[in-house]
Amino acid sequence: MPVRKMRVEVFDGSGNRYTVTFEGKVTREEALRLLDLIELLGGMPGVNPEWAGAASESSKFEKVHLIVQKHFPIAWFTSKDAQSMYEQEFKEPIPLSTVSTYLSRMADRGLLKKGGISNRRHYKALTGASQSALTLLKGNK
Asked: Would you call 84 exposed, middle or buried from its count of C-beta atoms within 10 A (0-12, 13-18, 19+)?
C-alpha cells in the first residue's frame, strides 16, 4: 500500500481551527478511527437536542436522510441497516421498500454513492467529513 497523507481540519464554535495530520499507510479502519476521535472531541457536527424536535415534524424522506447523516456518515450500509436504525431512532415502523426508494432517490440526487447489484444494493454518504476523507485518501498518494 502506498504511503498516503490524511489531514482533517476542524473548527469549533469559537472559530478555533484544529488540524490533525496522519501520514503513512492510511487504511480505511485507521481513517475511521481518526474521524471517530475527531467526533469524540466534538469537532464534527453531531445531533443536537433540537434534532429530535425537528425530526418529529419532518417527512419520512427527511427522517431517512437524518438517519443516514447520523448513523452512516462514512460507512457503507444497506437499506435494511437504514430501516433498522430508523425504527430504533423514531420508534415507528417503516417498510423496507420505502427506505429503498428513498435511498435510491438520494443516490440520484448525488447525496449517496450506490454500489452492488439490485438485490444486494449498498450505499455510502457523499457529504460532509466522509466526502473530504475520501477525497484526501484518493488524492494524496
From this structure: middle
For residues 36 and 20, is the Cβ–Cβ distance under 8 A?
no
Per residue in 107-130, pLDDT (tens digit) is 888 889 999 888 889 999 885 544
Neighbours of 90 (CB within 10 A): 18
Q: Are 61 and 98 in contact (CB under 8 A)?
A: no
- Nine cell digits for residue 101: 426508494
Go through the domains of the chain in sequence order and give each one's CATH number: 4-45+129-139 (no CATH), 49-128 (1.10.10.10)
pLDDT one-digit tens code per residue, 73-92? 888 999 999 999 999 988 89
Model pLDDT, residue 47: 42
Angle at 138 between CA 132 and CA 81, to 5 degrees: 60
